[in-house]
């Protein structure tokens, strides 16, 4: 981000010593250090939040892709269920027709 080397920090420290004075310089340096620490924590939190959002978006994309891939599977399952229900209905109809046929048939020697 910022490219501050040793010589730049030395010039800043020298100017601060001249402007602020030797009595107040430690207190100002401590305050500046505290603010820099708070700034770093804030940047780390923002970075972590952005990373979480990016990961959440990636997971959403992966889930959508998998749902699109599974869609034909759901269609096959639904078609199979429909076919099974048709077979069940037709077999029940055949059984009922057979029962009706045998019930209507007269058996020789049997009394009603």
UniProtKB/TrEMBL annotation:
InterPro entries per the UniProt record, alphabetical: TatA/B/E (IPR003369), TatB (IPR018448)
One Gene Ontology cellular component annotation held by this UniProt entry: TAT protein transport complex
Subcellular location(s) per record: Cell membrane; Membrane
Annotated transmembrane regions: 6-25
Entry annotated with the keyword Metal-binding: no
Function: Part of the twin-arginine translocation (Tat) system that transports large folded proteins containing a characteristic twin-arginine motif in their signal peptide across membranes. Together with TatC, TatB is part of a receptor directly interacting with Tat signal peptides. TatB may form an oligomeric binding site that transiently accommodates folded Tat precursor proteins before their translocation.
This protein's name: Sec-independent protein translocase protein TatB
Organism of this sequence: endosymbiont of Ridgeia piscesae
Encoding gene (name): tatB
């Amino acid at each position: 981000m910022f490219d501050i080397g040793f010589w730049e920090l030395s010039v800043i420290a020298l100017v601060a010593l001249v402007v602020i004075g030797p009595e107040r310089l430690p207190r100002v340096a401590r305050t500046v250090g505290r603010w820099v620490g708070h700034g770093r924590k804030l940047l780390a939190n923002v970075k972590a939040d952005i990373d979480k959002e990016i990961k959440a978006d990636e997971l959403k994309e992966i889930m959508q892709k998998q749902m699109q891939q599974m869609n034909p599977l759901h269609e096959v399952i639904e078609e199979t269920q429909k076919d099974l229900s048709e077979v069940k209905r037709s077999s029940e109809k055949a059984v009922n027709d057979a029962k009706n046929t045998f019930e209507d048939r007269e058996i020789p020697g049997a009394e009603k």
